[in-house]
Every structure is written in structure tokens, then in C-alpha cells.
Design a protein that fits this description.
Elements lengths: L3 H22 L4 H19 L15 H22 L3 H18 L12 H4 L4
Helix pairs in contact: 2-3, 2-4, 3-4
Length: 126
């Protein structure tokens, strides 16, 4: 069982790592932060759609409600930041549209055009 000094050292090390990460974040350009957030949302949505499994329809990680939320958040981020993304905008938009189409295909009862995840921000995806 660790003594109090060991817990303090672990806590101090974690705090030092956090301080280091915060200081480094200052040096990261906003387009990179936005792009990283978009990639994280895309990756998570793809997992929730089951796209990482050989059989997406039976993937244990499949959760369309969660995927809808993630895709909608991604659409909002992309729409709000598209003017700042420059060269990164097109591939991120393509990824978003691919996820929106995959969601439509995965849904037992597809949403009406313009009602799918994120479509209130992007417009209908066919």
C-alpha cells in the first residue's frame, strides 16, 4: 500500500503533466485544434456506427443514438469553423457526409431528407 508521500508524488507528476500539456496547447494553431476535434468526433461516430467491425450490423459497439449525437456535433463544428479550416475543410466535410450516409444506411427507419444527424447544419445528404 503506498504511503502518503507516494500519493503526493503521483499527484504532483500528474499535475506537472497537465501543466506541460496546457502550456504546449498554447503553441498549437487553432486549425489544428479544430481538425483534431473533428477527427475525434469522426472516429467516435464511425465506431458507434460499427464501421470498425467486419459486420457493422452486428457490431457490439453499435449505438445509433450515440452516433447521431456525434455526427450532429461534428456537423456543427464543421459548419461553424469551415472558413478557418482552409485545405482541411474538404476532407473533413467529405468524412462528415460519409458518416451521414452510413447513418442513413444503418437506420431501420431512415430519417426524412434534411432530418438526419447534422443535416440541420449541412442540408440534406443523399
Amino acid at each position: 500500500m503506498p504511503d502518503g508521500s507516494q500519493e503526493f508524488k503521483s499527484s504532483f507528476a500528474a499535475e506537472a503533466d497537465t501543466d506541460l500539456n496546457v502550456r504546449e496547447l498554447v503553441d498549437v494553431p487553432s486549425v489544428e485544434v479544430i481538425s483534431r476535434a473533428a477527427v475525434m468526433l469522426m472516429s467516435s461516430a464511425a465506431e458507434k456506427l460499427g464501421l470498425g467491425d467486419e459486420d457493422p450490423d452486428n457490431a457490439p459497439s453499435r449505438d445509433l443514438d450515440e452516433a447521431r449525437r456525434l455526427i450532429t456535433a461534428l456537423a456543427g463544428l464543421v459548419t461553424a469553423s469551415v472558413e478557418y479550416l482552409g485545405l482541411h475543410a474538404a476532407p473533413i466535410r467529405d468524412g462528415l457526409q460519409s458518416l451521414q450516409r452510413a447513418f442513413r444506411e444503418a437506420s431501420a427507419v431512415p430519417d426524412a431528407p434534411g432530418q438526419g444527424p447534422g443535416e440541420k447544419y449541412t442540408g440534406p445528404v443523399h
